[in-house]
Amino acid sequence: MSGMHLSLDEVWSLGATALLAHGCDEANAAAVATTMTFAERDLAASHGLFRLPGYVAALDSGKVDGTAQPRISHPAPAVVRVDAQRGFAPLGLERGRPHLVDTARSQGVAVMALVHTHHFAALWPEVEALCAEGLVALACPAYTPMVAPAGARQAFFGTNPLAFGYPRADEPPMVFDQASAAMARGEIQIAARDGHEVPEGTGLDAHGNPTTDPAAVLEGVQLPFGGYKGSAIALMVELLAAGLIGDWFSYEAAQHDNHDGGPARGGEFLLAIDPARTGADPSLAHSEAFFAALLDLDGVRLPGDRRHQARLRTPIEGISIPASLYDEIVALGGRRH
Ligand code: NDP
Fold first, then answer.
1. What percent of the chain has pLDDT over 90?
2. How far is the CA of 176 from the centre of ligand 1 (A)?
3. E strands along 14-108, which residues?
4. What is the pTM of this model?
5. 293 burial type by CB count under 10 A (0-12 exposed, 13-18 middle, 19+ buried)
């Protein structure tokens, strides 16, 4: 597969110009382009420019409003509600974050309910941004059905990711960010595109049989990680990101979606906790000693380390995307480099 080499600035402007060409205003285009650029910077290609055609499809069909201005309210002292007004999630997250941070500092703990939005990205950008403010953070959105609950052979849960972040003293925060599906759908799509098999347990084909063929999984159904345990996490995400905050469960989102290839509507639940208000030692030395003991064990690395290592290199070395994806984005209006 031939690749197109790009600097991170080129990634950003390629994405932003394509979004502007399809009706995004400057603020929405910048927020989405920044989210895709973060993914490319961390070599998380399945949430980088790979997503651009889906974002554009959702703009073109009118499902998503590229000029949406999020509305922020405070229905309770520890609750921030962001109505994204049918916009992509990145601008709602960006505009809601200062309110969530201030509320977590004043109350010790705060919830942000991001509703009426379309989330098509990884979660670590929003969790890391909260950790950068010294907060412990958790985030989860529901998504359109793709995963069979334990015992079932048909899709009902979304791939329902969950991210958790914990700030560190002199290191990047510890952030894990994982789908409750055995494999994120974007990774399966990339495996199908590149002709790789996926591990056993990733999914079932359209007849309900186990398969390692990514194309067959995409036509069939994905499985949760860890059997009924991952299924329970997916269930919790549905309840937090839909039931609790008054947005659509994954199965409802699918009923209302126009299936244009872009992200379905859904909500996102965020929780931020100020460790200064819950008894953590202010220097974080106690948890740093824990991380040191953990990392002393042979074979252990912290979740997020792979991304942070990539982040040291890509601003200098740039990244590569498939030439076919580059051509597709240029054809969609992205500025050629
Ligand atoms: P992975 O299975 O690749 O990784 C999950 C987590 O485990 C990461 O934090 C990763 O850190 C960590 N990890 C991996 N290997 C190790 C190891 N050996 N030791 C310690 N930690 C490790 O992610 P998924 O495929 O489950 O999800 C990929 C992305 O897809 C996520 O960012 C998720 O948010 C996104 N997604 C988004 C959806 C949406 O609706 N918006 C839906 C579903 C998924 P590291 O990155 O450093 O490897």
1. 96
2. 7
3. 71-76, 79-88
4. 0.95
5. exposed
